[in-house]
């Protein structure tokens, strides 16, 4: 009788131990996957280039030489930032040149500013954000960090706002909403209804600075 009791006791003890050990393993796996890995996703490697990737707002339409957005962000931050802008780019066309203009240049941080031309050419938002998500995935696959820069997707309402926020959260990237806020609609900061002048690009660079420094700290 004592032997049976002892066996049952030892069996129960073993089961409790196994359950506890299993729970600990699951917790450690959960912590590693959802916390450790997600934190590292947007922490850039020590070596590599900072690349500003986007459309005419990145290339610098409306700015004088040396006063485009990447150049001003570079001067204000003290970091060298390469200009990967291409006038007229949609998220789809940017995705097509991503390998050549970004991934082959050893990026450690890519600042992505796209979506304005998608809105102007009436690309469906689902398509726009699918392509933006793929751009981010390809950059992160190279172990580079991403700073996502948003634009408005409308005049009276902004269907892009929630989509940008959801994308940044899902991909675990830093995000700056509506980069043209406080710039567009101000004649003293614009060269045309869409493109800033030197002063306007300077304001945009100021908005990028805190997030840029936080990622690179």
Chart the SSEs and their pairings.
Blueprint: H1 2-41, E1 49-54, H2 56-59, H3 69-77, E2 81-85, H4 91-101, E3 107-113, H5 116-120, H6 125-141, E4 145-149, H7 159-171, E5 174-176, H8 198-216
Parallel strand pairs: 1-2, 1-3, 3-4, 4-5
Helix pairs in contact: 3-8, 4-6, 6-7
**How much helix is in the residues?**
40-55%
Order of helices and strands: HEHHEHEHHEHEH
What count of helical segments does DSSP give?
Answer: 8
Give the DSSP E fraction (strand runs of 2 or more residues). 5-15%
CATH topology group of the largest domain: Rossmann fold
How are the strands of the biggest sheet laid out side by side? 2-1-3-4-5
Low-confidence stretches are 2-7, 13-39
Highest-level CATH class of the largest domain: Alpha Beta
Q: What's the β-strand tally?
A: 5
What would you call the shape?
A: globular
Biggest pleated sheet:
5 strands, parallel
- The overall average pLDDT, rounded, is 87
Cα Rg = 24 Å
Domain count: the total is 2
General description of the model:
It comes from Candidatus Wildermuthbacteria bacterium RIFCSPHIGHO2_02_FULL_47_17. One of its GO terms (molecular function) is phosphatidylcholine lysophospholipase activity. This protein has 217 residues and is α/β, with parallel strands linked by helices. The protein has 2 domains: 1-41; 47-216, SGNH hydrolase (Rossmann fold, 3-Layer(aba) Sandwich). The protein is 54% helix and 12% strand. It has 8 helices and 5 strands. Strands 2-1-3-4-5 form a 5-stranded parallel β-sheet, sandwiched between helices.
């Amino acid at each position: 009788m004592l032997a049976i009791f002892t066996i049952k006791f030892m069996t129960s003890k073993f089961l409790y131990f196994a359950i506890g050990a299993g729970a600990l393993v699951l917790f450690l796996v959960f912590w590693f996957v959802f916390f450790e890995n997600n934190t590292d996703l947007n922490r850039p490697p020590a070596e590599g280039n900072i690349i500003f990737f986007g459309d005419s707002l990145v290339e610098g339409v409306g700015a004088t030489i040396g006063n485009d957005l990447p150049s001003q962000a570079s001067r204000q931050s003290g970091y060298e930032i390469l200009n990967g802008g291409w006038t007229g780019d949609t998220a789809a066309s940017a995705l097509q040149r991503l390998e050549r203009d970004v991934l082959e240049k050893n990026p450690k941080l890519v600042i992505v500013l796209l979506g304005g031309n998608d809105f102007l050419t009436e690309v469906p938002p689902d398509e726009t954000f699918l392509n933006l998500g793929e751009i981010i995935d390809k950059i992160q696959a190279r172990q580079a960090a991403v700073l996502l820069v948003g634009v408005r997707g409308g005049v009276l309402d902004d269907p892009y706002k929630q989509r940008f926020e959801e994308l940044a959260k899902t991909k675990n990237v830093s995000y700056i909403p509506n980069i043209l806020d406080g710039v567009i609609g101000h004649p003293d900061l614009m060269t045309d209804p869409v493109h800033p002048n030197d002063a306007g690009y300077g304001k945009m660079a100021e908005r990028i600075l805190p997030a840029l420094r936080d990622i690179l700290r």
